[in-house]
Structure formats: C-alpha cells, structure tokens
Amino acid sequence: MAKNGATTGNLERAIFAYNHDQNYVAEVMMYARLYVTEGFIPIEVIEPSESGFARPVPGVVTSPFGIRIDPVTGKPGASHEGIDFACQAGQRIPASKAGKVVYAGWQDERNPKSGYGIFVWIDHGGGFKTTYAHLSQTTVQVGDVVQAGDVVGVCGSTGKSTGLHLHFEIFVNGRRVDPAPYIGL
Q1: CATH number of the domain that residue 98 is part of
Q2: pTM for this one?
Q3: Whole-angstrom Cα distance, residue 115 to residue 134?
Q4: Are residues 25 and 100 in the same domain?
Q5: pLDDT tens profile 97-131
Q6: Does residue 52 fall inside a structural domain?
Q7: E strand spans, the chain
Q8: Which domain does 117 fall in, by range?
C-alpha cells in the first residue's frame, strides 16, 4: 500500500489502487474508523420472534415480499420472493437462526450481474431455509454450523441489484414464503 500513497496519508487512494472499487474503499475505511474509535467492530443482534427467526438487519425494508415493479427492468408485475433491507457498505450480515450452511458463493460467477450474486443459504432443519443475497462477500463456507447472530456475509450489491441491500428469503418445505411474519414484521 505504501507505493500507492498510504505513506503520504492518502489511504483511500492506496486502497482504491489495490482493487479499483469505491464500495470496497468505503468498507475498509468504515472498519478502520470503527476499530480506531471503538476498539472493535460491533454487530447488532436482533432478538428472535416467536418463530425463532430474528430480523437479519435493523435496516429499513426497501421492498417487501410480493408483486412489484422490477427495479432493474421497470416492468410491472414482477414477483419479489423475499424482503429487501437497506444496509451499508461493510455492514456485517448475521444469521437469522441457527443452522448449517448449504451454499456460500456466487449464484453465477460467469454472469455476476444476474440473480442473487453472492449469497448464503442456510438449512435450519424442519423444512426451513434462509437466503442472504447480493452480499459483497461471504464469511462462511458450506458445512459450517452457525448460531443466530453469527456473521455469514457482508452487505453488498452483487447480482441483479440496483444498490446496497440485503435480499432475505425464507423457504418452508422448498417454497418461498413471506418472511415478514416469521421475523416479527
């Protein structure tokens, strides 16, 4: 990083030279500020609802489950089979409930602007699974057992996405359902 300007105090330029991504720069700088001011990087854990699922992030719901205008194509009548939550670059995304990671990575790395982008899929047993999509990165691997609140990824905008957010889904016996009643919304 020194050859890219870090020694002259221009950390943002040095980080940008490392991978040419302003979102990455913002994420690294946020973590650095938190570490300097707080001594650690905090994560907010939200209490689970009666179903045992916790709301994954405290952010505003930017798109509920159901029919909507597709934000990418602008066409009406698109089925949105999850809930979108606002989140910030670098924000850590926790598991909503304990379970086993059954997928972690790109949905289609050859076409990174399609589908979920980078996502995590967790099997909670009893026919329940959750999806955490459009992440900038995952922090878990297939086979990992996670507890509610364990970080599974970082907020991003990969795949078919118009900006930073978390797309969250709940499956019951293989079918997507509206997550809202399961997470206390």
Answers
A1: 2.70.70.10
A2: 0.72
A3: 8
A4: no
A5: 999 999 999 988 777 777 899 999 999 999 999 99
A6: no
A7: 61-63, 66-68, 78-80, 83-85, 92-94, 99-106, 118-125, 128-135, 137-138, 145-146, 151-154, 166-172, 175-177
A8: 61-182
